[in-house]
Amino acid sequence: MNQDERLSILKDILLTDEREYAQKVEEKLKIVEELVNKQNQLSDRVNPIIEERLNDFVIEIPKTLGPVITEALKSEIKNSQDAVVEALFPIIGKMIKKYIQQEMQILSEQINAKMNNAFSFEALKRKFKSKRTGVSEADLMLQELVHPIIEQIMVIEKGSGIIISEYSKTQAIDEDMVSGMLTAIKSFAEDAFEKENQELNYIEYDSFHIHLQNFSDYYIAVIISGSYNALFKSQLEDKLLDFAQNSINKQDIINRDSFSEKLKKHFQ
Amino acid sequence: MKVSKKIVLLGYFGVGKSSLIRRFVENTFSEDYKVSIGVHIFKKNITIPEKGTDVSLVIWDLEGNDDITNTRLSYLLGTHAFIYVYDVTRPATYKNLENEINFLKEKQKNTPITVVGNKEDLVTKAYLKQNSNDFGSLTDFYVSAKTGDKVNFLFSNLAEALIK
Ligand SMILES: Nc1nc2c(ncn2[C@@H]2O[C@H](COP(=O)(O)OP(=O)(O)O)[C@@H](O)[C@H]2O)c(=O)[nH]1
Ligand SMILES: [Mg+2]
């Protein structure tokens, strides 16, 4: 065997296998290629269908599943109403606080704006009056806007919300229902502030301010129209505290008539 | 003489508490009160001539609860009389009757409780008789907010009892 022959044999051995191998690989590749092509063709055809279905699904879901979910949610909320309310309480409480803070802010800004206009004749007059009476200029300004007027005073038993005594200049509202509602609102709000152990002492209703002064067995609700300012509030508080301390005894709480008599005398 | 009494209605959702009150009372606290605090207040004046007394019933309609222990307790304070309502056609509304009544008795001691089965119009007398065991000895009588049967009696009876 010469060199060439040996090389040929070697080539044969090596290349035959390789060719066969290469052919096999090629065949496999073809199959894969076809498969891929087919799949591409398939997905070209299927994709739009799936997409359309998905779109339909998105459109249909609120119509079909929506009511079911809403219904389930509704009955869940209904069944666990108290849980919902409990969850909302702290939020409502915070909202109320935030709102009050905001309103106070706005008010004080408005007052400041007016105070800055210090060179008007009105302002000068107010300055003198403030010096003379010792009432702050801001409060005088508020008083000028609208005088606070006491529309009605109600002495209300805590818990039951039953009127113990009542005094009003004009009989306009049904005091039994109002006192019940005030008591319910008060209980509700106080539950909201439960952790802080606060008592509600102010409610706004329509254009009325309702000042609530709390005592141990009863509270006094004073319904005020016009402006309700810090000066008026403090005077009112003094008057109510003075009334409760010096005019009222345990007997009066049972005897409505004597309570009413004293109330009238004190606030006329 | 004029006296005011606080009446609280209790019972499951849909038993007809609000309907009973509506039957009896025409005026209510303005419905447009925005905040829902789970109670509506109604009022009805009743004159009791024999006593020369006007009684103002201040009626608290508590939103239904499927478990009395979830009731806001501060709403029960100072109550002069309870009316507990169930629906004679819905066993779920009276199956816990005894527990519910006991709960009330415990939370608000010495307060009278009138128990009524409402929607009497939907069933026959025979049905009521047959099921009287289920309604128990606690039931005082049956009423119907729909026909108005015994609705006035329910409230005026209570008013009279309260001023004795
Ligand atoms: N047939 C009949 N239906 C009633 C009667 N009382 C109330 N209903 C109905 O029962 C449903 C619930 O009444 P509602 O007063 O709202 O119940 P509440 O949740 O206890 O206040 C309403 O659809 C009423 O029309 C009754 O005496 N007879
Ligand atoms: Mg109702």
Which helices and strands occur, and which strands form pairs?
The complex is a heterodimer of chains A (268) and B (164).
Chain A: H1 3-79, H2 81-116, H3 121-133, H4 137-145, E1 149-157, E2 163-168, H5 175-192, E3 202-205, E4 208-214, E5 218-225, H6 230-246, H7 250-254, H8 256-267
Antiparallel strand pairs in A: 1-2, 1-5, 3-4, 4-5
Helix pairs in contact in A: 1-2
Chain B: E1 2-10, H1 17-24, E2 39-48, E3 53-62, E4 81-87, H2 97-107, E5 113-118, H3 125-130, H4 132-135, E6 141-142, H5 151-162
Parallel strand pairs in B: 1-3, 1-4, 4-5, 5-6
Antiparallel strand pairs in B: 2-3
Bound molecules: guanosine-5'-diphosphate and magnesium ion.
Residues 17-18, 61 of chain B line the site of magnesium ion.
Quickly name the level 1 CATH class of the largest domain in chain A.
Answer: Alpha Beta
Q: What is the level-2 CATH architecture name of chain B?
A: 3-Layer(aba) Sandwich
Largest interface, and how many residues on either side? A-B, 24 and 29 residues
- How many helical stretches of chain A? 8
N-end to C-end Cα span of chain B: 14 Å
Radius of gyration of chain B: 15 Å
- How does the overall form of chain B come out from the CA principal axes? globular
Please name the CATH topology of chain B.
Rossmann fold
User: What is the β-strand count of chain B?
Assistant: 6
Helix content of chain B: 25-40%
Oligomer: heterodimer
Task: Tell me about this structure.
The complex is a heterodimer of chains A (268) and B (164). Chain A has 3 domains: 1-79; 81-146, no CATH class; 149-267, Beta-Lactamase (2-Layer Sandwich), CATH 3.30.450. Chain A contains 8 helices and 5 strands. Chain A has helices spanning 3-79, 81-116, 121-133, 137-145, 175-192, 230-246, 250-254, 256-267, and strands at 149-157, 163-168, 202-205, 208-214, 218-225. Chain A is elongated, with a radius of gyration of 42 Å. Chain A starts with a helix and ends with a helix. The longest helix of chain B has 12 residues, at 151-162. Chain B has helices spanning 17-24, 97-107, 125-130, 132-135, 151-162, and strands at 2-10, 39-48, 53-62, 81-87, 113-118, 141-142. Chain B has a 6-stranded mixed beta sheet with strand order 2-3-1-4-5-6, with helices on both faces. The model of chain B is unreliable at 30-35 (pLDDT under 50). Chain B contains 5 helices and 6 strands. At the A-B interface, helix 2 and helix 5 of A face strand 1, strand 2 and strand 3 of B.
